[in-house]
Design brief:
By secondary structure, this protein is α/β, with parallel strands linked by helices. The chain has 4 domains: about 1-50, no CATH class; about 65-75 and about 340-530, 3-Layer(aba) Sandwich (Rossmann fold); about 95-300, 3-Layer(aba) Sandwich (Rossmann fold), CATH 3.40.50; about 535-675, ANL, C-terminal domain (GMP Synthetase, Chain A, domain 3), CATH 3.30.300.30. The chain is built from 21 helices and 27 strands. The strands form 7 sheets. A 6-stranded antiparallel β-sheet has the order 1-2-18-19-21-22. The longest helix is centred in the N-terminal third of the chain and has 20 residues, at about 35-50. Pfam families: AMP-binding (PF00501).
């Protein structure tokens, strides 16, 4: 009877008709017992495979039509009509309400985690965060805070609690960070008229105190520290009438104030409204200040409809909390359906993370395993339990905890090679997004199930995206190319106290002009192809847009980072390339070049081979001859914020002094004269 059931199941899954099944039954009497047992085993294995085979991820819409609209202006295909999504939850209108929803839905579950080196994570619950934020915010009010509160610290739980303290009392958060520099921070403190700044340790507070002592920041009157500070520092602060407090002291003051207001039967909370200011974010290299409204929580969970959030999911961030992209990711997590965080997101430093991971297996096996996994991705299958995951990629996946389910890359371009490699080796869904601080971090996002590269996805449901003509650069909206413009509830309201720059960025119809040049692809996704503002002229009069060329050269297999430059005294452009450690040595070996990563970078024949590959990629992409790099330098160290060649948003710093280039690249860069100006 069991054999008959197996065969019936097999016939059913195989789609055999009645007559065909009867013919199969007629063969049974002539089969031996061993044959029948073998046939039964085969049937069982077939049914088991059919039931357990990996299933492709179901995308939320047709991947060949991810956006809707005309050749120039498009919206998300996830929307039913042209009405943009303003709020993800019907009962949530502010960041404060989003956090309260997380508190309610999670059942007072863990909210913020931290750990000391070599120790397990310790967790602070939602209710503890809410209580500390309430007391801390009340203490800020007691110290005379009016609207703006500065936070000058690297990522840590107290940073987020300080942020929630601001939201609880309708104050605006102003993140500060080291790479702004002293001059920019003085400008920020004075423009926002801040009286209180929260710092992590004495060294950072001392920098602000020095500015106060010199009379550069007259409004600053209180510094709140997370860590211990010396008695000498406290006495020094008193001399210039600045109070220095521990965070715990501020909370005690706030608790007393809250108790007093309750005793008087008055409401001590000042809850925000959707029109209230939430964050003022200063970006590096500008004196203008994007002012971001409390409705920044209007951004939808990017993976909606395809990614199920679980209570045990945890978010790990590699971007500073001062970065608007990090703000965009963190806020929706508070109100997630299960109350837990759920995203691990990668900026361009994902390449650096994987660069520190080495496979013990031969490069040929790694290359073959990546190819097998990429073949599965093309069929929509995303998993981390295949044979290749267990044999080859286990160490790479373990480097990020072994539980990675979702990753997001944005903030700066990522090469197609690196993105494809990450998707194969990490065994999780990895999406790419695009946006600016002025549109609350994101406006386009690749969809779950889309394994293609070379684009930044389709518009988010909260944004309308269009391209407009740039005649001088031969980009026209009728061809689906032009400057990217964004409109929607996530677009900022303007630059703080700077109406002129606000008018330059926002036109009369509310469109944010980004300065980036995009191209609509046939599947409704957006590709970044150029930059409107970064243009230089060569000596023969040709205009060159370096970021357009860099985006093309990023498609070259050995290239991880590239910088292209020139000036009006030269007839050609030069390039500086950081090769991709993951593939460079093997790529060179295939061309009969042997050596370490460092040795290969200084091998002139290898340099010429890289240059030849880049020029082939450039020719295929349609670069003109004067746009092609004529001279190249391979450098083994990644561009970074520390060495001054990346901005805090991880984009190439295009304006830096010649002597800085000489110091970094030594005299080996030829010709250095092209990098002046």
């Amino acid at each position: 009877m069991q054999l008959q059931e197996w065969l019936r199941s097999l016939c059913s899954h195989a789609g055999l008709k009645g007559s065909e099944a009867e013919e199969l039954w007629s063969l049974l009497p002539s089969l031996s017992t061993s044959s029948l047992l073998g046939l039964g085993a085969l049937a069982s294995l077939t049914v088991y495979w059919l039931l357990t085979r990996p299933q492709p991820v179901r995308p939320p819409c047709d991947l060949q039509a991810q956006s809707v609209g005309d050749p120039s202006c498009r919206r998300s295909a996830l929307l039913k009509d042209d009405n943009l999504l303003e709020f993800y939850y019907d009962d949530i209108r502010t960041v404060y309400e989003m956090f309260q929803r997380g508190l309610r839905i999670s059942g007072d579950g863990p909210c913020l985690g931290y750990r000391k080196p070599g120790q397990p994570y310790e967790w602070i619950s939602y209710s503890e965060v809410a209580q500390q934020a309430q007391w801390m915010g009340s203490g800020m009010i007691a110290k005379g805070c009016q609207q703006f509160v500065g936070v000058y610290s690297p990522n840590r739980p107290e940073w987020v609690i300080s942020e929630m303290a601001c939201y609880t009392y309708s104050m605006a958060l102003v993140p500060l960070y080291d790479t702004l520099g002293t001059e920019a921070m003085v400008h920020i403190l004075n423009l926002a008229e801040m009286s209180l700044v929260v710092c992590d340790r004495e060294e950072r507070a001392a920098l602000l105190l020095e500015c106060k002592e010199k009379g550069m920041t007259p409004k600053v009157s209180c510094l709140v520290l997370f860590n211990d500070f010396s008695q000498a520092f406290g006495e020094r602060a008193k001399k210039c009438e600045v109070d220095v407090l521990y965070r715990e002291q501020l909370m005690v003051s706030g608790c007393q104030r809250s108790a007093e207001t309750l005793f008087k039967h008055t409401c001590f909370l000042v809850l925000p409204q959707p029109q209230d200011l939430a964050v003022v974010c200063f970006t590096s290299g500008t004196t203008g200040t994007p002012d971001l409204r409390a409705s920044l929580i209007s951004l939808p969970v990017p993976s909606q409809g395809s990614f199920v959030i679980r209570q045990e999911d945890v978010s790990i961030s590699y971007l500073p909390l001062a970065h608007m992209f990090e703000r965009m990711i963190q806020v929706p997590e508070w109100g997630s359906r299960e109350g837990g965080s759920y995203l691990v997101h990668f900026p361009m430093i994902s390449s650096k993370i994987l660069g520190s991971v080495t496979s013990p297996l031969q490069g040929a096996l790694l290359h073959y395993a990546v190819g097998r996994k990429q073949a599965e991705l093309c069929r929509g299958i995303v998993r981390n339990n295949s044979l290749w995951d267990k044999l080859v990629f286990k160490k790479i996946q373990a480097s990020l905890g072994g539980n990675l389910r979702f990753a997001l890359t944005a903030s700066a371009p990522i090469s197609c090679t690196v993105l494809s490699f990450l998707r194969a080796t990490m065994g999780c869904m990895i999406c790419e997004g695009y946006g600016q601080t002025e549109c609350t971090g994101g406006c386009t996002f690749s969809l779950i199930g889309d394994s293609s590269t070379g684009h930044v996805g389709a518009p988010l449901p909260c944004a309308m995206v269009k391209v407009v003509d740039i005649p001088d650069m031969n980009y026209f909206a009728k061809n689906g190319e032009g400057e990217i413009c964004i409109r929607g509830p996530s677009v900022f309201k303007g630059y703080l106290k700077d109406p002129e720059r606000t008018a330059e960025a926002l036109d009369s119809d509310g469109w944010l002009h980004t300065g980036d040049v995009g191209q609509w692809l046939p599947n409704g996704t957006l590709r970044i192809i150029d930059r409107k503002k970064h243009i230089f002229k060569l000596c023969q009069g040709e205009y060159v847009a370096p970021e357009k060329i860099e985006n093309v050269y990023m498609r070259s297999v050995p290239v991880l980072q590239v910088f292209v430059h020139g000036d009006s005294l030269q007839s050609y452009v030069v390039g500086i390339v950081v090769p991709d450690r993951e593939v460079f040595v093997e790529w060179a070996k295939e061309r009969a070049f042997v050596g370490s990563y460092q040795e290969l970078c200084h091998n002139p024949d290898v340099k010429n081979a890289v240059l030849e590959d880049m020029r082939a990629v450039g020719k295929e992409a349609g670069l003109k001859s004067f746009e092609q790099v004529k001279e190249l330098y391979l450098h083994p160290e990644m561009f970074s914020i520390a060495n001054g060649l990346l901005t805090p948003t991880l984009k190439s710093r295009r304006q830096f002094p010649l002597e800085g280039v000489q110091a970094f690249f030594s005299v080996e860069m030829v010709p250095l004269s092209c990098l002046s100006g």
